[in-house]
Specification:
The chain is mainly alpha-helical. The chain has six helices and no strands.
């Protein structure tokens, strides 16, 4: 059963945790292990959020995490702003789609665990 009582609080917490994990886990001097655990808050929140909230949460978290490369010389922004922005929007969209797709499988999780 999905809890729709406070989706904004759940989404903001997942965005901050995942976004900061991706921000510091990627880039020119990454803390590599953060990259591996960064998606976990969004995936945990996906079990409590609707599909729209899940998509938006994953999308914003990815964009927040991708801000560390915005001024990098090889980010594509020095050539054309649309190139860099388009790449970031596409990668955030793919991330959000995969999180939403993963949410579909989590709907049966409470039943599999015996309604804990």
């Amino acid at each position: 059963m999905q809890s729709q009582q406070r989706p904004a609080g759940t989404a903001v917490a997942a965005i901050l945790a995942s976004g900061l994990g991706l921000f510091f886990g990627t880039g020119l001097h990454p803390v590599w292990w953060l990259t591996w655990i960064a998606p976990i808050p969004v995936l945990v929140a996906a079990a409590r959020l609707s599909r729209r909230w899940t998509f938006a949460t994953a999308f914003v978290a990815w964009l927040l995490g991708d801000l560390n490369m915005w001024n990098s010389p090889d980010s594509g922004n020095s050539v054309h702003l649309g190139t860099g922005a388009g790449f970031r929007l596409r990668s955030a969209g793919v991330s959000a789609f995969l999180a939403t797709l993963g949410m579909a499988g989590s709907a049966d999780l409470p039943h599999a665990l015996g309604d804990v």
